[in-house]
Amino acid sequence: MRKLVALPVLSADALSSVAYGPEAMLAVLVLGGAAGLRYALPVAATIAFLMLAVGVSYRQTIRAYPHGGGSYVVAGDNLGRLPGLVAAAGLMTDYILTVAVSIAAGVEAITSAIPSLTPDIVPIGVGVIALLLAGNLRGIRQAGVLFAAPTYAFIAAVLALVCVGLYDAGGRGFHPTPTPTLTATEGLGVLLVLRSFASGSTAMTGIEAISNAVPAFTPVTWRNARTTLTWMVGLLIAMFAGIIALIRLDGIVPSGTETVLSQLAHRSFGNGVLYVLTQAATAAILLLAANTAYNDFPRVLFLLARDHHAPRLFLRLGDRLAFSNGILLLSAAATLIFVAFGGRTAPLIPLFAVGVFLAFTLSQAGMVVHWWRLRDRHWRKSLFFNATGCLLSAVVFITAGVTKFTEGAWVAVLAVGLFLFVALRIRHHYEQVAEAVALHPHAVEVPWRTLAPQAGGQPAEPGPPRGAGPAAEGEEENRAAEDEEAPEEIRHLAVVPVAALDLPGMRALAYAASLQQPVLAVHVSPTEEEAERFRGYWRLWGDHLPLEVMLSPYRAIVAPLVNYLEALHRQRPDVTLTVILPELVVRHWWHRVLHNQLAGRLRRALRNLPKVVVTTVPFHVRPRSVRPGPHMPRGPHRA
Description:
Layout: H1 3-16, H2 21-29, H3 33-37, H4 40-64, H5 71-79, H6 81-113, H7 121-137, H8 144-171, H9 190-200, H10 209-212, H11 221-250, H12 260-269, H13 273-306, H14 324-340, H15 345-374, H16 379-403, H17 405-437, H18 470-473, H19 476-480, E1 491-497, H20 503-514, E2 519-525, H21 528-541, E3 547-551, H22 558-571, E4 575-585, H23 598-606, E5 612-620
Parallel strand pairs: 1-2, 1-4, 2-3, 4-5
């Protein structure tokens, strides 16, 4: 992407947060009455400094990780597996709440302009999530003018709002307008100020998005990404500071019926076209920010599944080249949270801060370790910037976790703990299964007979049926129509999809060969490197059967297999294809979701294709200690 496109597309989440971040800060300070509002400027100045520090820190991350450095990758590489998982938990919490909070704030922007829609906040928000779900399942991508326009419109609207507001304030000598009479409901103290600081810091959400998407930039990628990040942080600080200044000068306080940004727009633009455009731009960028999570959340799940910390179904791309399962999970979780909190932004903010700054803290801590180990040119300066960002992010994370624990932050803390438990148990299960299915020396089954491929690499064709000859050729079409009545009329080809050379795969191959019919093994690889690696394993095993290797760069399995079987059927419609699949049988029902249910999916996909039989060869997973060892006979054929 060019910088002019990358800036609005990747900055939507961060820039849109000024629509609710300042209001979240004021909503806490106003509890202390007029005295509490006096701390608005010092707290806002601290948040602006935090934005600058974290932005500079992520500039170092871009330099160190030119291929993309998300919090999970950085923390995992430099701090270890457990901190990486904690960072992933924070990221996933952040993305789920980005959808819920952005949509809640966007709906509030709409209801501020059209108050009659206020009772329908929850249905409207759920409908928006449903639209985002449908659009992303169809493969919508955030690119081009379509997605850049809302961000640029919002930037223009906010800057115009600030300029007009400052001009009006200059006409009265920049004397602040008195705030309405406020009654303190809480005592003013350090705890209240810290809570407002934690709430206002949510204006920084999404600041890491550019560091995650460095490869998406035009060359030189890392330099363009750093430039874009600098512009984003500069705009974020300017917009945040401008809104805080106007709030102070115009005497605006949070209202239960109208957002702070809407009140400022009314003051500066009245009720005319500019006010409507401001609210429309605000709602549009908030919805775009929610859509950003639909790109990032499934990618984190993909990385977790690749590292065996999440079910393998999250590795799979849908027909539209979107991570459909991750999109569905995100939509379900965001809808649940949105409905549970009544579609209101304020109650969601305490949950938001915990996940955001947990990921920030671990990412920057990982960068500190990275520079300490690398010690290249300017490493001390980079380490200082990342250490500063880490320290400040940790302060916000602890502050939000402690001061807002009873207000809802406990939900985020519980979610992180639950995620860690589940991720580690999933990894443990996959390790147990890998040990149970791994081949062991001197106990590798081989087929009863070796079936070599014919010239050209095609599988050995079955012999002609009894009575074949010129008279039988006219019956080809009838046999293709599944009208065989005698066993000797059926001509077979057994096709065995083999994902890996393990015990389940060997058992399926042995079963297929035991049928005394031609056998063809098929392997689907995501890359040419993995395909060549599998061919090497196949040759090492002995190359006993013909092998067909197909490339599927999007990790789809069913579609390539179906297409290949359809091609085989068209080539030899008289042959009955028997697809023999190895199937893992696990001990508990909840383990099934961790394994691809290939047999059922393939059977449904092939249902309309004649003369195709799908069967499974079960392999029961149990501890290796009870399996036959090399000293225990397993049959006469051993290699």
